[in-house]
Amino acid sequence: MKITLTRENLLSVLQTVGGVVEKRQTMPILGNVLFQVSENTLTVTASDLEIETRAKTELESSEASQFATTLPAIKLINIVRSLPNGLTITLDFDESRCTLLAGRSRFKLSTLPADDFPIMDLTQSDLSFALSQHQLKQLILHSGFAMASQDVRFYLNGMLFDINNSTLRVVATDGHRLSTCSTQLAMEGLPSTQAILPRKGVLELQKLMSDDETLIEFSLAKNYLTVQLEDTVFTCKLVDGRFPDYLRVIPTENDQLIQTDKELLRSLLQRASILSNDKFKGIRLKLSQNLLTVNASNSEQDESHEDMAIDYNGTEMEIGFNVNYIIDVLNSINDDCVTLILKDANSSCLIETQTDACHCQHVIMPMRL
């Protein structure tokens, strides 16, 4: 059985699904991608049993109307990526082998039966709504950096999707900082629903999103989430856990405002981070009338001291923070100016931002230095 398609079309679908494939899988079949031919369309699927991504592309020709097999994912991606643009690729399948022909190149790859490939059941859905790719990408981009990584509290190693009426809010926290962004949906009357998407799922979903306003279908079932684009379907199992009450963490009584140029502050903090403690990355901020002083030091007795003019008329205070947490927030902000809202030296810092797609709140807890 033979199929032919352009190198660009094949590479596009392989790159779309390739990030899901685990290099160290426990089942050999998970190192393969599923090829399904239906009429003149090729669907390529990758799975790690937790995440599944399907991508479609048009074929130039096919000898069979229905056909399915699996091919080794990493080897195939590397081969197709190394071929020059503009080639037509022919895949010739027999019982347990596939011959790939492109120009003067010929490659033979072993296949595994399609029946052994695990497929998720996508027929059930408890809640569905539409939003733009731009909206979803902005939500993840402005909060995803606060997700925990390999935390024993497994429910923190991911992102909460909180739906209520016409509002979609995402929340990420590692226990030391919290970022949450919300956006308005076109559909109203949605029931209150919460779902935790694991960290790998969030990162793979972000890769699929573009900055255009194309609508996507967002669906939740009891134990998985599905996002459907025009030619791609992303499905991920949800984390079975209870996310902490994030609303209690967001300060409501902070009244000390620091306003300053975002780029100047980010540059200052990046310089301070060079001599901060390698493990805790702590810096000390000293606030006085229209002046910010940033101090950093480490166990090798290196020190950093720098002043910066700011717009501040509050009380004098000294407060410590993990410098990387502030820099992460500044990196996500598009505005030229930034406002940090404090209460006292023992309370969290709040940074609020507004984009065309979402409203964001970032909470950074203080450090004792």
Q: What would you note in describing this structure?
A:
There is one protein chain. The chain has three domains: 2-116, DNA Polymerase III, subunit A, domain 2 (DNA Polymerase III, Chain A, domain 2, Roll), CATH 3.10.150; 127-248, DNA Polymerase III, Chain A, domain 2 (Roll); 256-364, DNA Polymerase III, Chain A, domain 2, CATH 3.10.150.10. It has six helices and 25 strands. Helix 1 packs across helix 2 (73-82) and helix 5 (262-274) packs antiparallel against helix 6. It is of the alpha+beta class. The chain has helices at residues 7-18, 73-82, 133-141, 199-208, 262-274, 323-332; strands spanning 2-6, 32-38, 41-47, 51-58, 61-62, 66-72, 88-93, 97-102, 105-110, 127-132, 158-165, 167-173, 177-184, 190-198, 215-220, 224-228, 232-237, 256-261, 282-288, 291-297, 303-309, 317-322, 337-342, 349-354, 359-364.
